[in-house]
Write a structure and sequence with these properties.
- Two copies of one chain form a homodimer.
- Chain A has about 425 residues and is an alpha+beta fold.
- The first copy, chain A, is about 50% helix and about 10% strand.
- Chain A folds into two domains: about 100 residues, Phosphorylase Kinase, domain 1 (2-Layer Sandwich), CATH 3.30.200; about 300 residues, Aminoglycoside 3'-phosphotransferase, Chain: A, domain 2, CATH 3.90.1200.
Amino acid sequence: MDKPVFEPLTVESLPGRLADIAALDGNLGPADTWKVREVGDGNLNLVFIVEGDRGAVVVKQALPYVRLVGDSWPLPLKRSFFEYHALTRQNARDPGMVPAIHHFDEAQALIIMDYLSPHVILRRALIEGRQLPELARHMGLFMARTLFRGSDLAMDTAKRKADLALFAGNVELCDITESLVFTDPYFDAPRNRHTSPELDRIVARLRADRDLKVAAQHMKHLFCANAQTMVHGDLHSGSIMVTDTETKVIDPEFAFYGPMALDTGMYFSNLWMSYFSQRGHEADGSREAMRQWLLATIVEAWAVFREEFSRLWREERNGILYRRELFEDQGDWLGAEQALDHFLAGLWADTLGFAGVEMHRRILGLAHNADFESIEDTGLRARCETGALELGRHLAVNRRRIHSIEEVNALAERIYAAVVAR
Amino acid sequence: MDKPVFEPLTVESLPGRLADIAALDGNLGPADTWKVREVGDGNLNLVFIVEGDRGAVVVKQALPYVRLVGDSWPLPLKRSFFEYHALTRQNARDPGMVPAIHHFDEAQALIIMDYLSPHVILRRALIEGRQLPELARHMGLFMARTLFRGSDLAMDTAKRKADLALFAGNVELCDITESLVFTDPYFDAPRNRHTSPELDRIVARLRADRDLKVAAQHMKHLFCANAQTMVHGDLHSGSIMVTDTETKVIDPEFAFYGPMALDTGMYFSNLWMSYFSQRGHEADGSREAMRQWLLATIVEAWAVFREEFSRLWREERNGILYRRELFEDQGDWLGAEQALDHFLAGLWADTLGFAGVEMHRRILGLAHNADFESIEDTGLRARCETGALELGRHLAVNRRRIHSIEEVNALAERIYAAVVAR
């Protein structure tokens, strides 16, 4: 039988083409009751919401190019395959934290999954100044569980190697990160843009900053070569959907085997950027409580992460690394604790390194974030952005000599007072 | 057509089965002139030397189990596939340093390559006290070129990722290293053995040494997760053949994408072990010059390695890491030098870490080396082994705080005087 030809869905063609999928009947009801609307998911894909008598689903379809740019920027359909496999693994490692999948069609690069409602994108909630009481705990647990359980600390290593080989095919999406995150921001690359002329001076200074460039390339090397675990790969506040009580992590199409600290660093970085951007979304001092909540949620998430990672280290360390034969079975449980401390110390330094680079690429590179972009007063926006740029530089260069997350927060507050609030 | 069934060769069946291979006619002459003899290659495979009117070749065939142990220890034929692909890549990266391949038969797990004569195994030459004037230069260049050119410093990254996925299938041979090198030596594992009772006390001490165990597991994590480049994977003095003027690296069936420092560390480790073992092969002080030559050849190989790696960094750094756009193209060539210094500093520390672990596994684990094993006086052997164990512990634990290779040599000499020569 011939392989079916890829065809992009449209609002009109969708019910006819998906009517036969049994799982949809259960979730939606008969196809002639479906209401379909298209929603942009941001940059890359087609996304439809389909509502029927019995419920609603999201249909996400990859296109053979970047949706936002058009066919001048081709991007393989296979990213849908990686997203599907990443979602299944994440769901096994931290059940319920990703949308349930109802159907996957590899040839049509199509994933049908839960429609999350009334969830909103975390980035949007943060811009609106919403505090989310469960966020820190959910994300701390999610990061600890997915990162630990996908590594040689827990997995059967033959399975991990097979999985690593599978995800090594996600070349084009890794290439986006390799270029747009780790390289372009640090020189005058054609795809870059920044708030100009306000940031011109600091941008010139950062691009002439030798220590920063060397640090960013060190982090890039870790990204490329340090295949510790299956990472989400794009864990910013646009990849998380929230209500006051629920958190769901979406869009893992950038998943691959990489360093644990990529996910933790990118996540915290986006919260620190939100911290600096709040000033652009307040009329008066009304966001001060939000700023304090952001710093507190960072502290809490890191504490939850460390605690859960440590619990898994003690209870689920059944992979080939740091085997119990060497430690607990010899009565040397304190040796396992020492190894845990060393492990977390490395993860901490790398977390700060990736956090710093992420701040730079969001302000100097191609893919900016709405936290800053939606601040219309460019002078104010530039002040907020400068705060993040300065913190990012400090973290990337000094990542191995920073004591605690409280110290980073204290520095963020000093930078805020000196640069943003003035 | 059915896939041909794997059949082990014998001295008798070989000429008939290989007579039709065109490349052999050119290298050997007609099959009815061939003389075939089997030689053990050590532990894993069948190896035949075939001589004809016009020359000689080696025929190496994998068996579905470990030759030395028998079919109770199965090992996949596919290791021959990885060896073949590793040889072709090494030959492209440092031409002439591996045996030329005349034929590869995947189904028969068979590689036909140059018969190296009058080359001998480096380990044998060192035990005999032979100084090899070109060894340091050849091995320094080989390690720099293969390790640099297989990494994202030089390779097209899509090709490197495809290659990484290919070699991720070499699970069983990586498992041997993961278990026998990094884990078993550090507890009382069933496959271990050591010179007993002479070493019992130090073995107990090392297995109770928390810092050492944590360090060894850190190195194991790098082995498993740090996919920097295609490494040889088993670069000890039994994998190198030498004459006074030529050096050839053989047997890369353990190849995979791993840390650069694995190869450098294992190589230097075997030279330091040779240094300690010389005492067991001298009647009087006749090996003092050999000991000094060994220390000098270590210094020279590391200098050649650094020099060549640095040259490649400056001239062939065309991969996605540390791109010229960020450094040289901005006039910041000194930034590229700073990055090189940082890179080599990390490689140095990891080299010492892997070197230390390799010393331990050769004395405490399953696979001992002839340098020590051939010393019949077990008291003397244990003293030589103790020297290596002590140095190995020092290197593994203190790897990040050791200044230079000269300092390691000086320490080796102090340990030799205190422990071995007494």
